[in-house]
Amino acid sequence: MFMTLVATFLAGIAAAGFVMLLNHLLGKTAGRTLPRWFTPIAAGAAMILAAISSEYSWYSTTKANMPPEFAVVQTVDSKAFYRPWTYVRPFVDRFVAVDMASVRNHDSHPNLRIADLFFYGRWAPIHQLAVLADCANGQRAALVETIEFNNDGSVTGAEWISAERGDPVLNKICGG
User: Fold this and answer.
1) Domain stops at, among 33, 64, 95
2) Are both 83 and 113 inside the same structural domain?
3) DSSP annotation string for 13-44
4) pLDDT tens-place string over residues 70-110
5) Better-predicted residue by pLDDT, 176 or 3
6) 66, 108, 163, 167: least buried by Cβ within 10 Å?
7) Is there a single domain that holds both residue 60 and residue 110?
8) Of the candidates 175, 142, 171, 174, the residue with the CA atom closest to the CA atom of residue 73
9) Residue 62, burial from CB neighbour count under 10 angstroms (0-12, 13-18, 19+)
10) Whole-number Å distance between alpha carbons of 63 and 44
């Protein structure tokens, strides 16, 4: 966040410097200069464009910097009335990734798989959640301490979420 703020200010300073240099050159060659109000307008416009660019490039930059065994399974687009350009082209401000290296089968329950999900958000810390996936029944649950695996193949203490057909998290964890 701090680096984005610094980059935004530097874009404003660079734009103002460019307009001042252009003004100086125009004054020497043509004898006319730009209006004085043009410098702060150019600086403000450059700062807004730098902030917008940062918003739109966050997802691709974050995804490129993830470990290779991470797979993005779901994204959430952002639209806001105070950013009208997002209605034309929304940007991703949060997403979920599965650590494919963490996917493992439960020894005594072959239809159950355990995996780590990572929740990324713009301006938010990364959250990790271990998930228990029941591939046979198409459901998943957060892996918490209250879950018990019974000898008969059943699981107690899990708050199962029935996933819709084609659920990206289950598809990735279950392999298909």
Assistant:
1) 64
2) yes
3) HHHHHHHHHHHHHHHHHTS----TTHHHHHHH
4) 999 999 999 999 989 999 999 999 999 999 999 988 777 77
5) 3
6) 108
7) no
8) 171
9) middle
10) 29
